[in-house]
Amino acid sequence: MEAYREAKRTLVVGVRKKVNFASCKPSAHYQLPLNTSCPGMCEYCYLATTLGKRPYLRVYVNIEEILAKAGDYMTQRAPEITVFEGAATSDPIPTEYLTGLLYKTIEFFGDQPLGRFRFVTKFNDVNSLLTAHHNGHTRFRFSLNAPSVIRMYEHAAPPLDERVAAAAMVAQADYPLGFIIAPIFHYPDWRQEYKGLFSSLAKALPETARRDLTFEMITHRFTKRAKTNITAIFPQTTLPMPEDDRTFKFGQFGYGKYVYSLSAMAEMKTFMMEQIGQHFPEAKVEYFVYVYLSPQNAASARRFFRQYSIFHPITSANARSHKPDRHAKNFIWVAALPKQTNKQDQYI
Ligand code: SF4
User: Fold this and answer.
1) 140: number of Cβ within 10 Å
2) Domains along the chain?
């Protein structure tokens, strides 16, 4: 635990030597490597699993080379637009006051007819970016959650109201805006709290922000490895990770995850989509959950989900021909294939 905390307080300034960018499907074409890790102490941070026991903060000084490489990728894909994700291995805002890397990157993409940039943050220190020449080419996304979830599990990140206020400032600066609501939990007050989240967003955001607004949502899930890491770093954690109450599914990378039951997920997604429809009817929902469904299970999954019009159970076999509906552009929902079943899942 001490090593983990110490790493989160240590900044490594380095040169990014690896030339090629990692791919970042399906949300972007490539990861843009600006920095790694972040000083936040969120219990469910996926970086705790991917960056190991000592997740030092790293920033890369050879930004010109990195952006030139981004230019090469854009040239290769021309005349298609190429999208780069700047937060695949970090939250880039906390070190921005030291490096100015985001500012430079945003201005670079502002001049690129065939390049788009996107990143996400839980932090509210956005002032230095408000005057950047973004030209609408950077999507500025905020990661939000219910106030009690933030209080309990996001130990070094700002509270919801400060993130919402920062999002309003970003919207005033005319950036395309987006929100990731994740991980969504199912607990006694979940409806009330997530409803409050959408109401406060609706109150704070200017009308202009609604024209180009995206949402991404992910329900809580965990792997055995993540659970082991989390309990090692946060021995007193109250994060709900009960294997018995969850459905086990195999992910696209071959390892298993524990997810909420299909009925709980359906309830949560229906509620969240209703909230978005009510407060932000013009918003685009970009929501990707990938789970493999065998063809024989796909038919019954489709029957199960027919009652929830927002869901689109698809299989790897029919993914290409799948046509999302008007309310859910790019919305791909692939239902879980339960290995262990509970009452509801037996339906599938
Ligand atoms: S703010 Fe994001 S990157 Fe930082 S610890 Fe929390 S989840 Fe991880």
Assistant:
1) 27
2) 2-241 (3.80.30.30)
pLDDT given for residue 236 in this prediction: 94
Which of 256, 260, 268, 252 minimizes the C-alpha distance to 339? 256
List, for residues 134-151, the tens digit of each pLDDT value: 999 999 999 999 999 999
| Rounded-to-integer distance, Cα 93 and Cα 121, Å | 7
Q: Which residues pair with 236 in a beta bridge?
A: none
Q: How far is CA 298 from CA 303, 314, 317, 325, 339, in A?
A: 9, 7, 10, 19, 15
What's the rounded mean pLDDT across residues 201-230?
Answer: 92
Which pTM was predicted? 0.84
- DSSP element (H, E) containing 162: helix 160-172
Substitution candidate for ligand 1 out of 122, 153, 218 with most atoms within 8 A of CB: 122
Compute CA 219 distance to the chain's CA centroid, rounded to the nearest angstrom.
Answer: 11
Using a pLDDT cut of 70, give the percent of the chain over it.
80
Report the sign of the C-alpha dihedral through residues 154, 159, 164, 165, in that order. Answer: negative
Take atom 7 of ligand 1 and give the residue whose Cα is closest: 45
CB of 51 closer than 6 angstroms to any ligand 1 atom: no
Angstrom distances, CA of residue 164 to CA of 74, 95, 217:
33, 20, 17
* pLDDT reported for residue 266: 79
Measure the CA–CA gap between 219 and 269, rounded to whole angstroms.
Answer: 8
Instruction: Determine if ligand 1 sits within 6 Å of the CB of residue 91.
Output: yes
Q: Which of 37, 45, 90 to mutate to test the pocket of ligand 1 (most atoms within 8 A of CB)?
A: 45
What is the distance between the alpha carbons of residues 231 and 297, in angstroms, rounded to a whole number? 35
Span 159-186, average pLDDT:
97
Q: What is the dihedral of CA 240, 241, 244, 246, to 10 degrees?
A: 90
Separation CA 31–CA 90 (nearest Å): 11
82 half-sphere exposure, CB direction, 13 A CA radius: 22
